[in-house]
Amino acid sequence: MRELLLIENVLSPCGWMKSVLAEHGCKVTRVLHVKQAERALSQTRFDMILLAGEGALPCVTDVKRLRQSTSLPLVVMLPQTSAEDLSTLHYAGVNGLVSATSSRDELWETAKTAYDNTPPKPVDV
User: Fold this and answer.
1) What is the spatial distance between Cα 7 and Cα 29, in angstroms, rounded to a whole number?
2) Neighbour-count burial of 86, counting CB atoms closer than 10 A to its CB (0-12 exposed, 13-18 middle, 19+ buried)
3) pTM score > 0.70 for this model?
4) Minimal CB count within 10 Å: which of 13, 38, 97, 115?
């Protein structure tokens, strides 16, 4: 079972994201901001991070902060996406980008592709 960390930096709830991922056998832990995410990452082993944000620029700051402490696959969901957003976020370290208007299948495929294309991390013994 994949352990996913969902960071909800948006005003509208992202319950549909959690339900889509749960339908595919994922366990999702929800937090409200990056500080809580950093705390969760220090306490639990996650396989992937999903960040739901209001816009590309605020997300870049959060992504850069997360990238200082983790190399986990990271997928961002924005209300709307553009080619410029994709380029900016990819450069910051994002592995996948979806729009809030994306279908449930698109969300799953983007998350799965980001997860599958990230090299496995060595396990601490």
Assistant:
1) 9
2) middle
3) yes
4) 13
